[in-house]
Design goal:
With about 120 residues, the protein is mainly alpha-helical. It contains five helices and no strands. The chain is elongated, with a radius of gyration of 16 Å. The model has no long low-confidence stretch (mean pLDDT about 80). Keywords: Membrane, Transmembrane, Transmembrane helix.
């Protein structure tokens, strides 16, 4: 059942938006900085945590998987609507804010989702 993933998606989205707005405020920018990306990371982290705890039955897991897969096109659509040329020409901060989360994602994901190999 797809509906089961909506609650986790909503929670992830709200937390991501809060983190993005807070980060923007902390950096002195009147904008959301990476809220959708943070929401996606939260969604994937919650899913993996629920799997490790054994809290996902098959219908619940299918719902969370559906929304995890749907989130990627949403992120791409939202990114495509932004004016990247204007952001890059505005200053070096836009480049740092774009590159830093990608770098941190590559560095931290192997540690966050480390699986035992037998």
């Amino acid at each position: 059942m797809i509906i089961y993933g909506v609650g986790i998606l909503a929670f992830s989205f709200l937390m991501g938006q809060f983190i993005g707005e807070s980060l923007g405020h902390w950096l002195g920018i009147n904008a959301n900085v990476g809220g959708v990306g943070f929401a996606m990371l939260i969604l994937l982290t919650i899913k993996e945590w629920f799997l490790k705890k054994g809290w996902l039955d098959s219908a619940f897991e299918q719902g969370v998987d559906f929304w995890s897969k749907m989130y990627i096109p949403v992120v791409i659509a939202m990114s495509a609507s932004q004016n990247v040329k204007l952001a890059v020409s505005s200053g070096f901060l836009a480049i740092i804010v774009g590159v830093l989360p990608v770098f941190l994602g590559f560095v931290l994901f192997p540690f966050l989702f480390k699986k035992e190999v037998i």
